[in-house]
TrEMBL record:
Family: Belongs to the UPF0410 family.
Subcellular location: Cell membrane
TM ranges: 6-24, 31-54, 60-81
Keyword terms of this UniProt record: Cell membrane, Membrane, Transmembrane, Transmembrane helix
Native species: Ruegeria haliotis
Membrane topology of this protein: Multi-pass membrane protein
Protein name in UniProt: GlsB/YeaQ/YmgE family stress response membrane protein
Source taxon at top rank: Bacteria
Predominant location: membrane
Length: 84
């Protein structure tokens, strides 16, 4: 993996994690935690959306969008586990 692709993945993960923390009413985990949630959310979205028949685009905005949706789903699931 090249440094530039790693940097892009971290940037997209940070943006997606920050957005998901805002969407889920402050349930974020700080900067590092949000990056991790964003990266895992992007991976989750990469698995879920093609299985549902949605095409994941290749642009920066679509990558951030799908990673954010995946991170929101992940934060929702973490919230369910924490309450239980």
């Amino acid at each position: 993996m090249e440094f530039s692709s790693l940097l892009a993945m971290l940037l997209i993960g940070a943006i997606a994690g920050w957005l998901s923390g805002k969407i889920m009413e402050g349930r974020g985990f700080g900067l590092i935690g949000n990056i991790i949630v964003g990266i895992i959310g992007a991976f989750l979205a990469g698995l879920i959306f093609p299985a549902l028949g949605f095409a994941v685009g290749g642009g920066l905005v679509s990558s951030i969008f799908f990673a954010t949706v995946g991170a929101v789903i992940l934060l929702f699931l973490i919230g369910l586990i924490r309450r239980g």
